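Retry 2 of 3 after timeout on previous attempt. Resubmitting structure tokens to design endpoint.
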């Protein structure tokens, strides 16, 4: 992507030059699915697909947002961007402005003196593919405004602001995984994040040295987390935590599972079993990465997929075929990544088998009468930043 294209788009849309260009990446989650809103552990990394935004401040409090991929230009003011005030695509950028205001207020400050802005977005993060295109958009604007308004907010503050945008303005009841990955990731590493304390550290992946590639298999089954499935999984987890009298499923250990089985409905139990075992798999994955590297994590990825498929019930046939076929074709491991109900799987593949895995998954999709998948390698990349 050329920065020039983003600057040109801004100039064409708004008839003046921008102040600068910022960007934020999409993400895949290596392991740790649906654990974020259970105050558990996640291990995502940012991918080499980003959303860029050119921003120019205005003399008034008007805000205007335009995008290379959407026809509508959203217009509002800094004072009218809260929950319920915006719908459609503009909810992402406007919600981000509102989220920043909320975080500033919590710190005893405000955006009362801030100037309005024009913003123009260009993205190569596929939408609806489970790769956090919405977080990339929110986070690109959050880092831009943090600079433009000299807010001096930290990475975790920006996570809070963009997460508020997603939950309260867009209306998707998601956790902090996506925004954390987009804002806090570093090159060639995964981000090990404790969603209870907010503490994080990077874990080196060393894929190139190990001769390994991570493939994304976009099933092209689209999903949206503002739909009911995600919320109902979340409700199942909350039921389980309430039945055990714990604050969150983070507080349940694998050894506690059997004894807890009779204390709640079976569906809540299965949801809980996924979360509790998944938290342990994240810890195990980090331990293996630290000790011996990525070649050893394949079985944990497969176990995570099986748990998402059977206990959490967020897979779809396309994802199961993607995972099973990749592994049969030589992938060390594979799993559904992101919220599920469609979207993408990832596969950890020795470099020399990338062609074979791609060919076999594509053939298997054709045999099943599925849409042709989009299969591409991703590189663990740097988080949100200023580009110009
Ligand atoms: C979506 C949500 C995240 C997380 C994942 C599942 O990506 O946005 O907060 O819950 O699903 O791990």
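Retry 2 succeeded. Sequence:
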């Amino acid at each position: 992507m050329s920065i020039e294209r983003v600057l040109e788009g801004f100039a064409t849309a708004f008839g003046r030059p921008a102040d600068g260009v910022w960007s934020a990446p999409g993400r895949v989650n290596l392991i740790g699915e649906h654990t974020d809103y259970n105050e558990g552990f996640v291990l995502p990394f940012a991918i080499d697909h980003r959303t860029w935004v050119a921003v120019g401040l205005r003399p008034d409090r008007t805000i205007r947002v335009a995008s290379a991929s959407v026809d509508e230009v959203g217009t509002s003011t800094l004072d009218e961007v809260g929950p319920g005030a915006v719908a459609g695509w503009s909810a992402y950028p406007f919600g981000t402005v509102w989220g920043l205001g909320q975080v500033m207020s919590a710190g005893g400050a405000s955006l009362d003196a801030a100037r309005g802005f024009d913003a123009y977005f260009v993205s190569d993060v596929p939408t609806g593919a489970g790769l956090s295109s919405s977080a990339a958009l929110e986070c690109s604007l959050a880092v831009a405004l943090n600079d433009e308004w000299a807010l001096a907010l930290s990475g975790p503050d920006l996570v809070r602001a963009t997460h508020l945008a997603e939950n309260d303005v867009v209306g998707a009841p998601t956790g902090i995984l996506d925004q954390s990955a987009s804002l806090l990731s570093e090159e060639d590493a995964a981000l090990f994040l404790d969603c209870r304390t907010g503490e994080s550290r990077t874990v080196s992946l060393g894929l190139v040295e190990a001769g390994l590639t991570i493939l994304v298999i976009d099933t092209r089954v689209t999903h949206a987390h503002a739909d009911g499935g995600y919320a109902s999984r979340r409700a199942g987890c909350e039921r389980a935590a309430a039945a055990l009298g714990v604050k969150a499923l983070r507080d349940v250990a694998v050894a506690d599972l059997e004894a807890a089985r009779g204390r709640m409905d079976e569906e809540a139990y299965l949801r809980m079993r996924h979360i509790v075992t998944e938290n342990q798999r994240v810890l195990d994955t980090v331990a293996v990465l630290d000790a011996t590297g990525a070649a050893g994590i394949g079985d944990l990825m497969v176990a995570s997929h099986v748990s998402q498929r059977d206990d959490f019930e967020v897979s779809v046939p396309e994802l199961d075929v993607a995972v099973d076929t990749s592994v049969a074709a030589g992938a060390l491991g594979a799993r559904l990544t992101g919220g599920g109900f469609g979207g993408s799987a990832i596969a950890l593949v020795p470099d020399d088998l990338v062609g074979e895995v791609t060919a076999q998954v594509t053939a298997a999709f054709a045999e099943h009468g599925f849409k042709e998948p989009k299969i591409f390698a991703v590189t663990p990349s740097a988080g949100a930043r200023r580009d110009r």
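Attempt log closed. Residues 29, 33-34, 36-37, 174-175, 177-178, 225, 338-339 surround alpha-D-galactopyranose (CB under 6 Å).
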